[in-house]
Amino acid sequence: MKFGFRDSIRPNGVIKKRKKETRPTFQELQFIEKQRRDILLRAELPFWRILIFWSGTCLREISTDVLVWITLAIYATIRIHANSVYDVPDYVDLFEESNISILGGFLSFFLVFFVNQTNSRFLEMYGFSKAASGRVQDVAGLARAQLPPEIGDAIVRHLNAAQIAGYVGLNAIGQGSPYSRNHFFDVYDEQYKLLTPEERKMIEHHDMNNSGLCMKELCTWCQVEVAEAREAAHLNDYQERLLHERILAFRAAMDGMYDYTDQPPHFFYIHFVDLLSALYLPLFAINTAYSAGWGKECYLGLDVLNGLIVLLQCIFVVGLRSLGTKMIDPYGDDLVDLSVILYVEATLEICDTIMNSKGGKTKIQWMLPPAYNPSSSQYQAPVCS
After folding, report:
1. Which residues contact 180 (CB under 8 A, 6 or more apart)?
2. Could you count the other beta carbons within 10 Å of the beta carbon of residue 57?
3. What is d(CA 300, CA 292) in angstroms, rounded to the nearest whole number?
4. Model-level pTM?
5. Can you give the pLDDT at residue 320?
6. Strand partners for 367
7. What is the pLDDT of residue 91?
């Protein structure tokens, strides 16, 4: 059945983009990640140092926004005309009586509400990323303590591979993902040996770059391996259920990222805010310009001051709108997006530490008091009456 949609198709319920996009190399992703981490560290700097930054701020967005320059041009044009005439036109009094402050109040409310909504989405998706990382670490700890090394290692490898494949598969929905199989998944797979050559062939039928199904299959591998460990008497019922719960919780966290990415804020609302902004700022510039005096009543200092007020209003409106828009998709390549590389590498390193831990039950004896430690000369054997 064909509906005429040429932009995308839905094999197995997953959007698969037709357009081939060139995504960043791993070195470029690392460079972006380093900038993100540097920007996060700026939050605690003194305010005067924060003001001197350009990257990661609203200034870059404001300086390239067409609406800002149109608004400033309208104000400058009216003020130049006001300084070049001697008689005050009759229509000036009519403009001075107009009041757009009510519109400004409504727009401020909608903008703040929009930013609050997108910020909540951003934090929710950050929580999903950290929850997925935490569940992988939970499985690693349980596998290290309860399973033979070869079985536990396989489960942890596959779950880490599922996490990385999940970030790559985000390209299938929303605005796409900068993470690709060649420049992201394969890099970590080669470094940490997450999949064997045979296992890689088993997932070749999935288009990891345009589907989240590879992540789903890898999660299923982990569940099957846990079930097989139970059948081999390596786990009891409670331990098996505990591992299954952690794996399913991991999959639910990854699904949460996909759900939020697939359903951004309503386009109707975003268009409504953009429309109000496009109408309000030019009207504000006109109202301010006509109220600043004409002919002999013009003062250069007052013109500059009112111009700064118009610019400040542009910064407020466009800045809030840009902030809300940037937080809609936290898994892109913006400098304010989430640090996916950090989450992946931290999870891999922690799992490696857990699985290679040398601790064991024999060291528990060292923590016992001498009288209760069988290896101590002061050990007193219990006497049965």
Report:
1. 23, 168, 171, 209
2. 17
3. 10
4. 0.82
5. 92
6. none
7. 67
- The helix, strand and coil proportions of the chain, stated in percent and rounded to the nearest 5, come to 70, 0, 30
Q: What number of residues does the chain have? A: 385
What is the per-residue pLDDT for 138? 96
Tens of pLDDT, residue by residue over 16-36, are: 443 455 788 999 999 999 999
The residue whose two tokens read 């400040």 is 312
pLDDT lower than 70: segments of the chain:
1-21, 88, 90-99, 359-385
Q: Is 89 exposed, middle or buried (0-12, 13-18, 19+ CB in 10 A)?
A: middle
| Euclidean distance between CA atoms 277 and 317, whole angstroms | 7
What's the per-residue H, E or C state across 86-139?
A: CCCCCHHHHHHHCCCHHHHHHHHHHHHHHHHHHHHHHHHHHHHHHHHHHHHHHH
- Provide the token pair at 123: 């934090």
The pLDDT value given to residue 219 = 96
Q: What is the C-alpha separation between 246 and 260, in angstroms, rounded?
A: 21
Burial class of residue 378 in the structure, from the number of CB atoms within 10 Å of its CB (0-12 exposed, 13-18 middle, 19+ buried): exposed
